[in-house]
């Protein structure tokens, strides 16, 4: 039965992102809004129950991992004016090697630097530097271990 789920996931991903690398994985239960506005890196993995709201554009670098229930949402509302509130969109960029923990949320206008880790349940509303670990609500960040750069 697991093989059938994998086959369904691959077929759905090929239909949603025909120009994306074939080494990416999009779990069949992931919700994808505006798939044409997502730029896929190599070996990206989107886990079960994730939401990619890409109205404003999402860039996923190589080796990005989104754990179960992670949410990337580029759309929002402008509360600076009285109702009805105007819709706004801002892009999201996840650079190479970013890992987003279970049920974390990343909002529009945010860039997550390479090899940063977003802890489970974190709500990210501002940019995260490379090699940083982010946890909690409101988010707290601390320097993470530096990976050996092969370049």
Largest sheet at a glance?
Answer: 7 strands, mixed
| Poorly predicted runs | none
Specify the overall morphology: globular
Secondary-structure-derived class: mainly beta
Biggest sheet, spatial arrangement of strands: 1-4-7-12-15-17-18
Number of helices: 1
CATH topology: UDP N-Acetylglucosamine Acyltransferase, domain 1
User: What's the CATH C level?
Assistant: Mainly Beta
Tell me the strand percentage band: 25-35%
Q: Number of domains in the coordinates?
A: 1
Quaternary state of the chains: single chain
CATH architecture classification: 3 Solenoid
Description of the molecule:
The protein has 151 residues and is mainly β. The chain has one domain (2-143): 3 Solenoid (UDP N-Acetylglucosamine Acyltransferase, domain 1), CATH 2.160.10. 10% of the residues lie in helices and 34% in strands. The protein has 1 helix and 18 strands. It has one helix spanning 2-16, and strands spanning 25-26, 31-33, 38-40, 45-46, 51-53, 58-60, 65-66, 71-73, 75-78, 86-89, 92-94, 99-100, 105-107, 111-112, 117-118, 123-124, 132-135, 140-143. Strands 1-4-7-12-15-17-18 form a 7-stranded mixed sheet. A hairpin with a 4-residue loop joins strand 17 and strand 18. The termini are far apart. The mean pLDDT is 90.
């Amino acid at each position: 039965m697991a093989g059938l789920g994998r086959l369904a996931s691959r077929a759905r991903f090929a239909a949603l992102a025909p120009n994306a690398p074939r080494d990416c994985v999009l779990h069949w239960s992931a919700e994808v809004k505006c798939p044409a506005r997502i730029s896929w890196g190599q070996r990206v993995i989107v886990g079960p129950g994730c939401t990619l709201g890409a109205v404003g554009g999402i860039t996923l670098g190589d080796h990005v991992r989104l754990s179960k229930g992670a949410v990337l949402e580029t759309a929002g509302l402008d509360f600076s004016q009285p109702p009805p509130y105007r819709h706004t969109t801002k892009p999201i960029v996840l650079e190479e090697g970013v890992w987003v923990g279970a049920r974390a949320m990343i909002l529009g206008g945010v860039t997550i630097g390479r090899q940063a880790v977003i802890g489970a349940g974190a709500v990210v509303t501002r940019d995260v530097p490379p090699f940083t670990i982010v946890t909690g609500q409101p988010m707290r960040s601390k320097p993470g271990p530096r990976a050996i750069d092969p370049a």
